[in-house]
Amino acid sequence: MTGTFVGMPAFPVAAREALGDTQLRHNLAHATGVIRAKRAAVVGEVDNWEDLRLAGAAVKERALTDLATHLEELERMLVAHGATVHWARDAAEANAIVVGIAQGHGVDEVVKVKSMVTQEIDLNGALAAAGIAAWETDLAELIVQLGGDLPSHILVPAIHRNRAEVREIFLREMGGAGRPAPADLTDEPAMLAAAARAHLREKFLRAKVGVSGANFAVSETGTLVVVESEGNGRMCLTLPEVLVSVVGIEKVVPTWAELDPLLRLLPRSSTGERMNPYTSTWSGVTPGDGPQEVHVVLLDNGRTRALADSVGRQALRCIRCSACLNVCPVYERTGGHAYGSVYPGPIGAILNPLMQGTGDKQVDSLPYASSLCGACFEVCPVRIDIPEVLVHLRSKVVDAHRSDTVPSAEAVAMKGVAWTFSDARRLARAERASGVAGRVMKRMFGVTLPGGRAASGKLPGPDGGWTSARDLPAPPAESFRAWWQRVGRLGRQGGGES
């Protein structure tokens, strides 16, 4: 899988840098706040929202429970409607298929619908290596592409940019990629959108090959579904002669009727709308209408690895709404780039490790990129218990390091604690020693917590990192065991009741 941005540092390092960018934090706080408010308003209109969440989760779970059967049915129905179906085990195979189709038609450019899965496999990079330009047509994706940037949000890839920055990008870069931006371009949203529309129109009209993903794939009818808000998707899906759709195998929905709860959950959870402005569905080839050659690439790329995880497999229910990002206090302060993946935020913190496995320092850091506050689960339209999966993945990271040749300092410390706690006499001696240590620590590093509780300050040595962000209560001068023995002895001497 190529879901990690090559060269990105582990989350703590990347997050520290992001936290120092005040403009980034302002942009993120404003944008996520607006989206949260819109979502809350439209969700509040639905009396049975929780029942709808349960229904959506059940649909996705049913599809995952018998995924092989539904995928085979999807293939049969697509082929019956004139589409060509390809199977790709990983990014390399998927990219080779799409590049081969484009080269077979002799094109030097393709137009693309916004697609997380094509970002996941770095399709644009593979096409560029073959001399084929891949033009992003979603407004936010266009901003990211022209700016030589990386996406930082599932729904709004350019959420980290404000409109003044977008204006500068358009003025500086549009001319080198096609029709230039007007010289008198302002940062008014309507003017920016008009400049993007004029820039993209010529690409839509001349492109022979279009590339898309799919929000859902209905196995019963062999139907692919794309939902979007700008209309660029409709242009990419209908104008080119050839359409190639790269679809993750988890996007399957068993029946047409089961789309109902998902199409009601998605727009409210993502854009804060009651319904998507554009919902496009297609099944293979329709003579004389739309693309006359349709290819569907069904991609694994780590999804079967995630499916095999009994706790983590629920992450494959994800419908890419990004609601978890918009409520996450960690994401709001660090942005998406800190996660080092096209899947940022809480869902990225579980999806990337599930699909890639442990062993990479950057990926292993992601399950810890959370306060476990639970807000992500509360807003997830398909009830993915992200905190549960995060804790589960943390245990996997820890277990993976148990086999290291040289044990970590933490592992050595935990073994020492286990040895001490396993014997009452050793524990009693440790308690006596901790009382002495507590008095020394209070004198040397002592601070006082609210309420008059004693605490040690930042400890020296390897414990300094842990205590730099935490108040560490100083051990009491007398342990509970010693107190109990002393009180009990006094009680017996006085003959009173204990």
UniProtKB/TrEMBL annotation:
Residues 315-384 form the 4Fe-4S ferredoxin-type domain. The keyword Electron transport applies. Residues 452-474 are annotated as: Disordered. Pfam families: Fer4_8 (PF13183), LUD_dom (PF02589), LutB_C (PF11870). One of its GO terms (biological process) is lactate metabolic process. Residues 407-486 form the Lactate utilization protein B C-terminal domain. It comes from the Bacteria. One of its GO terms (molecular function) is metal ion binding. Signal peptide: none annotated. Keywords: 4Fe-4S, Electron transport, Iron, Iron-sulfur, Metal-binding, Repeat, Transport. Residues 71-299 form the LUD domain. PROSITE patterns: 4FE4S_FER_1 (PS00198). This is L-lactate dehydrogenase complex protein LldF. It comes from Nocardioides psychrotolerans.
